[in-house]
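Project outcomes to date are best conveyed with an example. Our students and postdoctoral researchers have been running inverse folding experiments weekly, and each run begins with a structure described purely in tokens. The record below, which covers 318 residues, was selected by the lab manager from last quarter's runs and is presented without edits.
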């Protein structure tokens, strides 16, 4: 791994992901100093009180000034505006690396690139690690361990800068893969975005029923529904921005999903038990592949690990 240490890391946005980066970078000795800014003074105060940042600022340019690594950890929809604000204040240091953690990549590359001055290396990124929690208190150093982080550098990105950012994520515990923004968005549409949409939808459908069914939806939720509610508890602002910024891929995958759902509906209607058994067996095999790849365990999950703290909590949604 090449040198992954930075003198001043600026986190713009200090929520679950920003604070987890701070914890993990500190633990790995990757930062001389970690500073940050957020939308509200309350978050900056909390981040200072918890020792997540050494210095906290009210604005992104103040935090970014003099940093050799700037990480945009805000909701996807405002990354372009934040980069613009930093650039207009002349706060990007020559030679700095600018990256982000947004769950969508093409839109962020399009929005941020026009505001990156010459001599600053913009390399978009996305750690495929998260929980349904938000805010600076939710972060923990182990979040990225054994998880993938996708980097989507453009062709003219400086190779040394890409190698350094790759080494940074590897020191945080991640495996790094490089791909195009468009490919990232298609893969994540099916592995993350559409599953979240299904969770939001099924929880709301049940919620509407719940009013007539006198709490039975909550009482018997262990039958599968409860797992959807955990995913559906994810931050609404973050997910609004994901869907508004990855329309094309999400709508394509949703079309495929709808076709497959119709096929299942048809198999049920016409008593096609063999079809149902084959499709469910295929799904079970895919799950086995995820376990064999070390991305989950096959331990029975009764929803109790979360109560034991973040170290044991069921990992990523994103
Ligand atoms: P979060 O916990 O809600 O934190 C978001 C942070 O952004 C907060 O500190 C918030 O400040 C700040 N922020 C919001 N608007 C801002 C603005 N206009 N200017 C400056 N700061 C602003 O969110 P998160 O889960 O860390 O997600 C952050 C990013 O990571 C998103 O782009 C998301 O797509 C991506 N991501 C999330 C996950 C996941 O599972 N959560 C996983 C991978 C990637 P306040 O607290 O003051 O509002």
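After processing, the design step wrote out the following sequence:
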């Amino acid at each position: 791994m090449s040198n992954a240490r930075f003198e001043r890391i600026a986190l713009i946005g200090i929520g679950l992901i920003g604070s987890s980066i701070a914890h993990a970078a500190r633990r790995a000795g990757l930062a001389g100093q970690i500073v940050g800014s957020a939308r509200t003074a309350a978050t900056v105060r909390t981040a200072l009180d918890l020792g997540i940042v050494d210095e906290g600022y009210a604005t992104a340019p103040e935090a970014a000034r003099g940093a050799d690594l700037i990480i945009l950890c805000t909701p996807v929809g405002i990354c372009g505006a934040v980069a613009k604000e930093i650039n207009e204040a002349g706060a990007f240091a020559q030679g700095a690396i600018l990256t982000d953690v947004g769950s969508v990549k093409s839109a962020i590359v399009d929005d941020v690139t026009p505001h990156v001055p010459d001599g600053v290396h913009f390399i978009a990124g996305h750690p495929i690690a998260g929980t349904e929690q938000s805010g600076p208190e939710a972060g923990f150093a182990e979040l990225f361990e054994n998880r993938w982080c996708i980097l989507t550098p453009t062709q003219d990105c400086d190779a040394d800068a890409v190698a350094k950012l790759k080494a940074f994520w590897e020191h945080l515990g991640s495996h790094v893969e490089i791909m195009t923004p468009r490919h990232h968005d298609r893969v994540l549409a099916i592995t993350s975005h559409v599953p979240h949409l299904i969770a939001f939808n099924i929880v709301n459908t049940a919620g509407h029923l719940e009013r007539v069914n006198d709490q039975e939806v909550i009482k018997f939720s262990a039958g599968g529904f409860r797992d959807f509610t955990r995913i559906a508890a994810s931050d609404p602002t973050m997910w609004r921005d994901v869907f508004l910024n990855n329309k094309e891929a999400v709508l394509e995958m949703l079309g495929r999903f709808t076709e497959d759902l119709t096929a299942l509906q048809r198999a049920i209607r016409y008593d096609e038990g063999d079809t149902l058994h084959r499709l469910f067996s295929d799904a079970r095999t895919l799950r086995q592949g995820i376990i064999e790849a070390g991305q989950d365990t096959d331990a029975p999950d009764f929803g109790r690990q979360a109560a034991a703290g973040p170290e044991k909590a069921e990992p990523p949604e994103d």
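The longest helix spans residues 181-213. DSSP finds twelve helices and nine strands in the chain. The training component of this project remains on track.
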